[in-house]
Amino acid sequence: MEFQLTEDQLMLRDMVRQFVEKEAKPTVAERDEHARWPTELVRKMGELGLMGVAVSEEYGGAGMDYVSYAIVIEELSRVDPSLGVIASVNNSLVCYGIEKFGTEEQKRELLTPLASGRMLGAFSLSEPGAGSDAAAQRTTAVRDGDYYIINGVKNWVTNGDHADTIILMAMTDPSKGTKGITAFLVDTHAPGCRVVKVENKLGIRSAHSCQMAYDNYRLPAWRRLGEEGQGFKIAMTILNAGRIGIAAQAVGIAQGAFEAALEYSKVREQFGKPIHEFQAVGFTLADMATRIKAARLLTYEAAWRKDQGLDFIKDASMAKLFASETAMWVATKAVQLHGSNGYSKEYPVERFFRDAKITEIYEGTSEIQRLVISRELVR
Ligand code: CAA
Questions:
Q1: Residues lining ligand 1, Cβ inside 6 A
Q2: Which residue of 16, 28, 34, 314 could cross-link 75, Cys pair, CB 3.0 to 4.6 Å?
């Protein structure tokens, strides 16, 4: 058993922490207020190697492990959970998918610029009628010589309006159910792919989530990811890894909210003493710290299992389930501990409270995580 981070992981954590404290913190509230996309920060994350943390150096990545990746997402999210999800989607939903399932040509042409931050990626599975029931795909892809013709509407595409490449799932043979779904690597700059709207959201507002439409979009066949009919399996495999990223995002949100509450409890005085001296407050802080530690250990362990080549499906879902519910619980308590000030946009806990909620929803709701875990338990 080894609970110590390596020297490299500690240095990485410090580097990301300094980056967000200096570069992201001053603008995080304003970007949230105006749902403003962080163009400059995304560029810098690319330069720092944060967009392809676990991608091999051969394909433009930083060549680190998945524990390091979890540390990066946690640290980004501790200050700005929008940056956390932008990076998480690019790293684990897109780069990981291409590195695992892509051809050599796809890795050279697409993975290398995505992992090095010169291009941005998105992942597109959800549809108006396909949320938790991801197999209910209505988007179609019909083979036409060296092309596929794609038609349909996709929802909740994180990074959609700024992405260059999207991993898109579409039906190639509706008679085969999940085995009729195929994955594609969409070039968003080609005609026929458009952003219908950017959602006006409760939280993670600086990260954009889009509805996108495909109207007779022509995709060259070399951009198919994997074989025809493998798309559902590819999407599920990608999401297994992605869930570690969202668990890490949730740990970061919980940590950010906790630190704000701890600080406030030291400076806020009522009845003649700092409020942390009241047992109700002190015990709440103790419970927060304990739950965050448990969530972090679950998350790092799931990442470690992936690094060791062990099965990690159940572990990633457990980490995501527990960490996201921890983030929501901690953020709620942090608002309560601030009293009326917690309800004001002048304090960061109000934003963490709104940002935490999505971690219980995307990349599989808490209910879907329980379904995955319970299925794995009896496998
Ligand atoms: N890992 C690998 N393979 C898996 C898998 C997993 N976790 N779950 C299912 N599969 C495989 C099964 O083994 C099966 O393969 P075979 O046919 O070869 O045996 C195949 O997929 C079909 O599986 P099921 O019959 O279990 O499929 P199902 O229709 O019952 O659905 C589900 C399973 C777990 C409910 C799935 O639909 C699911 O995960 N839903 C949630 C979807 C989700 O997470 N969406 C998030 C959207 S992405 C997002 O949020 C993006 C963003 O931008 C942040």
A1: 89, 123, 125-126, 132, 134-135, 158, 178, 232-233, 236-237, 239-240, 313, 362-364, 368, 371-372
A2: 16
